[in-house]
Design goal:
By secondary structure, the protein is mostly beta strands. Helix content is 11%, strand content 27%. The protein has a five-stranded mixed beta sheet with strand order 1-2-3-4-5, covered by helices on one side. A hairpin with a 2-residue loop joins strand 2 and strand 3. The chain is globular, with a radius of gyration of 17 Å.
Length: 123
């Protein structure tokens, strides 16, 4: 997220991180403003070049179209190499967006009180 914020600020954008602000900003992480221009950006990070981590169901609409105006993928590669890809919404064909519904275990379960009985030392 920091890499994306820095990148856009260098390009002259005012950057607001809205990733945790809730309902009004569902489907994207950054809100960019520059003059009268506004842009919504979804940010992903990956350790494999050309990889794109699976998006959440909130990041695409019913037409399999990215909610954000663009997808920013930061690549953190071996030996400290960093690259990025900025993919405009209209360049992601719906035929390549595969709907998938999954489950997530709540953070309310992932803590010492709930999990200590399952954690063990490895020799």
């Amino acid at each position: 997220m920091n890499l994306a914020e820095h990148y856009y600020k260098k390009k002259g954008w005012e950057v607001k991180n809205v990733a945790r602000l809730g309902a009004e900003h569902i489907g994207y992480d950054l809100l960019l403003e520059r003059g009268s221009e506004r842009r919504k950006v979804e940010v992903k990070g990956c350790t494999t070049l050309y990889g794109i981590p699976d998006p959440y169901h909130t990041e695409f609409d019913d037409s399999l179209r990215l909610v954000a105006d663009e997808l920013f993928v930061a690549y953190f590669l071996p030996e400290g190499q960093r690259k990025l890809a900025i993919i405009p919404r209209e360049k992601i064909p719906a035929k390549y967006v595969l709907p998938r519904h999954g489950y997530r275990i709540s953070g309310k379960f992932k803590n010492a009180k709930e999990m200590d009985e399952f954690v063990e030392e490895i020799d």
